[in-house]
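Trying the structure run again after the queue cleared.
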Amino acid sequence: MIRVNGKPMAWHGPMTVADLLNALKTLDAIPVVRIDGKLISRPAFETCPIPDGAEIYLLPLISGG
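Done. Tokens:
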């Protein structure tokens, strides 16, 4: 199991950040994720593994004025 934004989700290894975002249908909307406190940006999504038991937060781009 992993936790995504505080909610439990099944983990299927091997799983990358890109796999997770594709499953959640949010690949284009999320430029950065935090996995166990470490920030991961879009260029690494395809290669960054998600370990079982990880705590993940999706950090959407926020703009304003």
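The beta strands are 2-4, 7-9, 32-35, 38-41, 55-59. Worth checking whether this holds up in the mutant runs.
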